[in-house]
Amino acid sequence: MIRFTRRLYSTASTPRIVNTIAEYRALRNEWLLAGKTIGFVPTMGALHQGHLSLAKTAKQDCDKVVASIFVNPAQFAPTEDLDRYPRTFENDVKLLSTVGVDAVFAPSVQEMYPAGITLDVSKQTGTFVEVKGKSHMLEGSVRPHFFRGVATVVTKLFNVIQPHKAFFGQKDGQQCAVIRTMSRDLLIPTEIVVCQTIRETDGLAMSSRNRYLSVEERETAPVLYRALRAAEVLFEGGERDANVLREVAGKILKESGVPVEYLSGKIGKDGAMMSGAVRIGKTRIIDNVLLGVEVRK
Ligand SMILES: Nc1ncnc2c1ncn2[C@@H]1O[C@H](COP(=O)(O)OP(=O)(O)OP(=O)(O)O)[C@@H](O)[C@H]1O
Ligand SMILES: CC(C)(CO)[C@@H](O)C(=O)[O-]
Ligand code: BAL
């Protein structure tokens, strides 16, 4: 009985680990010949329930699901946490096996950047993807290198994986907008699906970097969501003045004393996104709420 259970687990659920582009392409050809559709969940690892919810949605929509685990150097400034970014590969694979992911693409930096990659943008040579007009405000005002690194690696990953659909989290709302624009402009045939933000019970958006927080910092961290949620409640009650919504959220943040990097909210005819970033100790917390707009549950 025990043996039977084990066999089921190892053959039915363990994703295939793929480290090279050549190996992935061979697998993809097999899948395409068999008429399978491919869903893709790009990640940097250190997985949590937010990532798993993307994989579950991908599994509902597509025959085969590939998750990538790649800590992309190009989206880190030289002063940021590339070296200490959490790397928990074995546990990540275990988690992905619980939601039926078929393959984990985990390439080396050399595989993804064959000509090498330096973090100093002024010294970089070669080809990069930049989404002008969407990359230098909000997150991009604090991390000017960031969306160039993300757009570049997502283009490379799309070229390798060639998925029918790719799944991203609303928590990184501006990233979703950048990737949608990039896909439209570069005529990328992959459908971009944005999935809802998964939260801890106290409202904090799940995030790999939350594990940097000390016990006291973890208690403070939900303040950003509390502030955004207060604005959302007002919006739901009929308030349509973006200044009022920002003021309400801003007051809560000010009272908490946490340093605010930005707090933004504009109301358009199709609804609005209120977003913010705060520093809790050395850790950046970002979050957003969509007002009057639905995302994939
Ligand atoms: N709480 C969440 N709910 C839904 N999707 C999420 C959540 N957190 C991350 N994602 C999505 O998972 C994908 C991979 O994100 P990533 O690996 O950077 O995780 P992360 O938790 O956002 O990490 P970090 O703390 O470094 O920002 C992205 O599309 C991201 O938006
Ligand atoms: C999309 C992504 C995997 C690109 O490295 C990263 O920015 C992330 O995890 O959100
Ligand atoms: N989730 C976005 C990845 C990053 O902050 O580098």
UniProtKB/TrEMBL annotation:
Gene3D superfamilies: HUPs, Pantoate-beta-alanine ligase, C-terminal domain. Pathway: Cofactor biosynthesis; (R)-pantothenate biosynthesis; (R)-pantothenate from (R)-pantoate and beta-alanine: step 1/1. InterPro entries: Cyt_trans-like, Pantoate_ligase, Pantoate_ligase_C, Rossmann-like_a/b/a_fold. Its EC number is 6.3.2.1. GO terms for biological process: pantothenate biosynthetic process. Belongs to the pantothenate synthetase family. This is Pantoate--beta-alanine ligase. It comes from Rhizoclosmatium globosum. The lineage of its organism: Eukaryota, Fungi, Fungi incertae sedis, Chytridiomycota, Chytridiomycota incertae sedis.
